[in-house]
Amino acid sequence: MNKKNKNPQITHLDKKEKSTKEKKDLLDRLDNFFQSKSKILLWISLVASLLLSFLLFNVRVSEGGDDSAYILRAFEFIKELKFPSFQGPLYPLVLSFFVWIFGINVFVLKFLSIIFILIHLYFFYKAFNNRIPSFISTSTLLIIACNAALLYYASQTYNEAFFLMLQALFFYFFFRYILDQNENISIKNYIILGLLVFLIGITKTIGFSVLIVVLIFLLVYKNWKGAIITLVSFIGFYLILEIIKRSFFGEQAAQFNSQLSTLLQVDPYDASKGLENFKGYINRFWGNSNLYLSKHLYNFLGLKSDIVKTSAFITISTYVLFLVSFIVTFRKNKYLAFTGIYLITMCGATFITLQTRWDQERLILVYLPLILIFIFSGLYFLAKQKMFKTLQIILPLLILIIFLTNLKVTLKKVKENDDLLMNSLSGNKFYGMTPDWINYIKMSEWAAENVPDSVNIACRKPSISFIYGKRNFYGVYRIPSTDPDTLLNILKTNKVHYFIMGSLRRNPKQKTEHTINTEQRYLYYLSQKYPQKIKLVHTIGVDESAYLFEIIY
Prior knowledge:
Blueprint: H1 8-24, H2 26-36, H3 38-55, H4 66-80, H5 90-102, H6 106-128, H7 134-145, H8 148-152, H9 160-179, H10 187-201, H11 209-220, H12 224-248, H13 257-263, E1 265-267, E2 270-275, H14 278-300, H15 312-330, H16 334-353, H17 362-365, H18 368-383, H19 391-425, H20 435-450, E3 456-459, H21 462-469, E4 474-475, H22 484-493, E5 496-501, H23 518-527, E6 534-540, E7 546-551
Parallel strand pairs: 3-4, 3-5
Antiparallel strand pairs: 1-2, 5-7, 6-7
């Protein structure tokens, strides 16, 4: 007899009991609904994300300079065959292909980030769909598709959008071709897994921690073969890159060498203060936990006003929520177990290694989709337990509130961006800029046009000057000495004959007497012994002016 019809009565009773259970269990009904509509909701998410990305689009490079630095490295790779070793080289290498075709076209390079975000959403869906409750996976997808904080990077040339795409591809591949295969995993899959880990690592240095995640997970499940092959594969690809760098580009330093030395210091800008000690790393971990969990994480979702205050209570509560989710999901779902280990490792490495003074929201934003799906899943499985049944009402309400507040924040930012977008598209590149930046950029353009290409121009924001001036500038980020001869020799060695001194505000939102005065102090120390070697050439702006000085040797 066919096994399916062996005992039709029991089968019928099972179906009836299941049907009765579904009527009583709100989460089961939500799962059924979201599963039946998952493909439609995926397309709604992709279209909504695309539309909102256009409405939030920012044509300009940011004032921080890191985003324009990626474009500069891509340009230097194409024009000078200079390998982009600092930070992660993969993203500038990808950009370099488009720089080669379109030149320094900021709009085109930014548009790539929209594509990366959409690919990220698609593979995020593919990774978790049918592997965790559909209500959780699809509702999380809808939230992140409309999240203003995440969509901000859809129009930036930071590497966050690219990293999110690679991260989603990695999760999809690991779930589909490693976890789903059980014992029937081919060696080829582990080799590809090593390649994906390697690609994530050369996108962001913190991405090398993914190797630790994979090895821990495979060893916990006693998959020695998989761990060894993945490790060998990763090392192989890494060595190939190092050989190419040294043989063809003359690049001797590893990607993380210069960054590692900075991260180990007490003060990243002053090596004389020495290296961090154990207590210092503990303080870093707690300080960064406060910054990223109690401030940025909840601001991303519109659950906390956009202020700079941190809260120890919120930080501790978030850790408790995460711990509960980890305990509840670890044995119930291997995909969530891996996600939990990934978040612990990646966030932990971020909080321990980075100085709190940097406080950049993008450092944790790339984990936002995974944090949401993990905590929501933890609450979901907790709600399935009889003593926490009230969560079956609270969890859907919580997700709905987060979705609505998240959407409200996004629509508010769309409205705020409307004038800037229209003016930028019409060619008014200075619209919305403060006078300090307008004058600095105009001076960069003037200097690029009027200073011979055979000499260098020093400035505080060389990558931004490069975007507007279409030529290389020499960056002066700190004062290496107060000795005039040392300072003059540095300029002479680097063929610096001109010096831009701006009036860039230390507080970008408000004009005060405090400015970023690195260049001013550099010239001041130099003038103490060699006033005759500094000549004012050009001034732009009456208020918050920018100055061009010639250095006469």
